[in-house]
User: Which sequence fits this backbone?
C-alpha cells in the first residue's frame, strides 16, 4: 500500500498505517524515510520485535503466544498436504517477502508453489522479491481490523 497524500500529522500517518499503536512504529529512521537497509539493520539487532517495512516506516510486528500456536497449527495442516505432494514450500513468521511496491511483509504463514520457485529460483536473500501464492496473517492482540 502506498500513501498517495502526505500525512499532515503523526495521527494521520498512524491512520494511514492501519490505526496501529504508536509504540509499534519506530521513530528512527524518521517515519516515511525507512529503507530496506534500515529494515535489515533493525531486524539484525534482534533487541526488539522484528519489523516490517510499511510505506517507508519500520513497524514492529504484533506478536502473541496464542497467535503463534494458531500459526503453527496452520503450518502443520498446510505442510501435511504440500510436502508429500512436493507442491512447494511453507514458511513461518520469519519468512519475509519484498512486495512490488517496496513494502516488506512477514506473514505468519506463507506458501510458495514449486512452479513459482522454479521460475524465480530459490530465494537466497533475507527479503526475497518472490511473491507467495498464499499468505496468512493470524491476528494478534496488537493487530487492528484495518491493518
Assistant:
Amino acid at each position: 500500500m502506498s500513501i498517495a497524500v502526505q500525512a499532515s500529522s503523526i495521527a494521520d500517518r498512524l491512520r494511514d498505517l492501519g490505526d496501529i499503536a504508536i509504540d509499534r512504529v519506530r521513530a528512527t529512521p524518521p517515519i516515511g524515510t525507512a529503507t530496506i537497509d534500515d529494515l535489515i539493520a533493525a531486524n539484525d539487532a534482534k533487541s526488539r520485535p522484528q519489523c516490517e517495512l510499511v510505506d517507508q516506516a519500520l513497524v514492529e510486528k504484533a506478536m502473541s503466544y496464542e497467535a503463534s500456536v494458531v500459526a503453527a497449527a496452520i503450518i502443520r495442516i498446510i505442510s501435511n498436504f504440500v510436502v508429500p505432494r512436493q507442491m512447494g514450500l511453507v514458511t513461518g513468521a520469519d519468512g519475509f517477502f519484498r512486495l512490488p511496491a517496496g513494502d516488506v511483509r512477514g506473514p505468519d504463514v506463507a506458501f510458495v508453489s514449486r512452479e513459482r520457485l522454479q521460475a524465480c529460483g530459490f530465494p537466497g536473500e533475507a527479503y526475497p522479491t518472490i511473491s507467495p501464492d498464499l499468505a496468512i496473517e493470524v491476528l494478534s492482540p496488537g493487530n487492528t481490523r484495518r491493518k
